[in-house]
Write a structure and sequence with these properties.
This protein is an alpha/beta fold. The protein has helices at residues 6-17, 64-70, 73-76, 93-104, 141-149, 173-181, 183-191, 202-205, 213-216; strands spanning 21-25, 41-45, 58-60, 82-87, 107-116, 154-158, 165-169, 208-209. The chain has one domain: Vaccinia Virus protein VP39 (Rossmann fold, 3-Layer(aba) Sandwich).
Amino acid sequence: MSEPSYLALLGEIHERLLPRTYLEIGVHEGDSLRLVRPGTRAVGVDPEPRLREPLDASVVALTSDDFFARHDLGEVFAGVPLDLVFIDGMHLFEFVLRDIINVGRHAAPATTVLLHDCYPISAETATREHNTYLWTGDVWKIVLCLKELCPEVDVHVVDAPPAGLGIVRHLDPGVSERLQGRYGEVVDRFVNMDYSVLDGGKADLLNRIDYDWAVIEPLLPASF
């Protein structure tokens, strides 16, 4: 991987946008949460965080489902709008869908959601079963879901190694309500979708863009 990774891009987004608030779902050892810049109120959510060193952030040891059920983001962030979200939790479609629904309920016009692992490198690494060292699961399906069911939502995927970084804009409570209302139907359909739907058209279907700040910047808010 000669190109900068998704972590480099995440760090650059933090550096350039300086979000007031940042929510991270899936903290693990804290590599991505460590990229938060001074002045950002950051909260990480992970049922089993394994931090290697202390971080300047609050880490809540819950699943994201439990976190959203027990906490109001307005209170968590003291009334400051939700600026930046990074979703890197369970790499299964239905979990990502629920995270999108829950984030959308609290989204402001400038809220930006970043999705890890939504540009898989192969069918073998994009299964619902964790059979390979580099495993992206079926997170990629959320891109197709949003494009079809929520066309007013902007979704693009930066081809950042190793498996992409999605950028989602214009979530709102109405989008969340629509997805929640069709949750069972949507899960049944997309969970059973085969990787072969990407054959011959992965880049177009997943709205792939180059890792080029001149291309990425227009997709982000000018400010928070």
